[in-house]
């Protein structure tokens, strides 16, 4: 059954070099080149960034990272310090404190990679 295997999120990008700069220099991941693109380790999982002409066509959150509540503000400030801009949008049950969403379970921010893939950092998975 598929439920016994670990998923590997895959993010399409137009320019692998620009994506590598963002994921490694801005977000702090270490990657390794594989046949299909670049594989990054995140916590106990991995994700793949690969070139595709369909890059940036997903208009929903492509990948989310969960941080402990005590680390959230520091991580958000680190992203701001590196020039990452956060998105806001209308969503039922969400209140906004500037560009940080607050909801019953926690807090979250959403941002784009260079190709428009939407990423999220939150204290609780929505």
UniProtKB/TrEMBL annotation:
Sorted keywords for this record are:
Dioxygenase, Oxidoreductase
Q: What InterPro entries does its record include?
A: Glyas_Bleomycin-R_OHBP_Dase, Glyas_Fos-R_dOase_dom, VOC_core
| GO molecular function per UniProt | dioxygenase activity
Q: What PROSITE patterns does the entry give?
A: VOC
List residues of the VOC domain.
Answer: 4-124
Report the Pfam families cross-referenced here.
Glyoxalase
Note the SUPFAM superfamilies from the entry.
Answer: Glyoxalase/Bleomycin resistance protein/Dihydroxybiphenyl dioxygenase
- Does this UniProt record's set of keywords contain Oxidoreductase? yes
Keyword Protease present in the record's keywords: the answer is no
Protein name listed in UniProt: Glyoxalase/bleomycin resistance protein/dioxygenase superfamily protein
Q: Which organism is it from?
A: Georgenia soli
